[in-house]
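In response to reviewer comment 3 from the previous cycle, which asked for concrete evidence that the modeling workflow produces usable outputs, we include below a single protein chain processed end to end. The sequence was submitted unchanged, and the resulting structure tokens are shown without manual editing.
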Amino acid sequence: MVRGSSKAAELSVTRQVVFRPQAEDEVLATRAWYEARRSGLGKEFAQAVDEMVSRIVEAPMAYQRAHGDTRRAVLSRFPYAVYYRLAGEDVVVLAVHGRQHESHWQSRS
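The workflow returned the following structure tokens.
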């Protein structure tokens, strides 16, 4: 198929998102921490993570490499980043960590 043809534009990749258990635990713990600080803030954090994961699914190569094949997508409102890598067409979320603690997740990649 020729690049730029209308048929090529119609094709889309369906990516699955897989959260490692540690990454899911981090999101839940951080959400609870923010919620304890202010009602509704935990939900806003979770929404920010969901929105970032959606952007990653749309353009996974748009974010810089953090370590090896692991990439980092920084949340704009919260001091956290989503660390992920591609496994075939799927996105594997390794960690959702404070940007200052990269060494905590590197053993997961």
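The chain has one domain: 14-108. We consider this sufficient to address the reviewer's concern, and the full set will be provided in the supplementary archive.
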